[in-house]
Amino acid sequence: MRIDEEIQSTKFEDSYQKAVINITYTYGWLSNTFRCRFEKHNLTQQQFNVLRILRGRYPGAATVNMIKERMLDKMSDASRIVDRLVQKGLVSRCTNNKDRRAVDIRISDKGLEILEKLDQEFKPKDFLKNNLNEEEAAKLSELLDKLRG
Known about the structure:
This protein is mainly alpha-helical.
């Protein structure tokens, strides 16, 4: 559905304002769609993001600072997210062998199992292909990259 129909407004200053509103609205729409998938596994989007970062480092570990740098939501408090994941048994903390002041974060087997389940239940391709073909998805990604300059 078109953005002006979704928000029931046709009064935009210009195409730039309409684009920003459309991107913001679409972000919320995607977040709500994904939230339902993650809640089944008692996860937030930020926790899911941290688990994926750690899976990419597996069997190695990452520091909280490295996780912060790679997170999609730069406003997230990575330390608290890691705390919650430790409480759930999805990640573990251990002292860094090279720098005793640093703490390594490592995904647990339980964390890997949850990501495997999510991989099976939900593939972005399956979600997006109803409205975009592969070429359109690539073009959208290219335009978003261009927007961020």
